[in-house]
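Reviewer 2 asked us to include a model.

Predict the structure of this chain.
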Amino acid sequence: MRVNQIENGLDLTKDAQNMAAIYDTSLEPGKGIELHFHPELEEIYYVLSGYGIMTIGDEKQEISRYDVVYIPELAPHTLFNSGNVPLRFITLSVKVKRDQRKF
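Predicted model (structure tokens):
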């Protein structure tokens, strides 16, 4: 059995076939994650508190507590805390199997 706390990310590659990592992230008001993409990962964000603006590709939407956001492999994405309190969310990064890729 492995029990760990999420501190600066938890690498799961040695424990799970498809799960790469899990992160507990907090963005201060006015801060954000720069535009980026993942060539071999898809991600899920689960918002614990606060709110912000999520951009995936050309789509932009406000997100808030209890929202779950799916980010496909290769999708350029960014997140900006547009609120006045910290935006806290869990990120689950999952490896995409080669036979599941759409290209």
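The CA atoms of residues 70 and 101 lie 16 Å apart. The radius of gyration is 14 Å. We have added this to the supplementary material.
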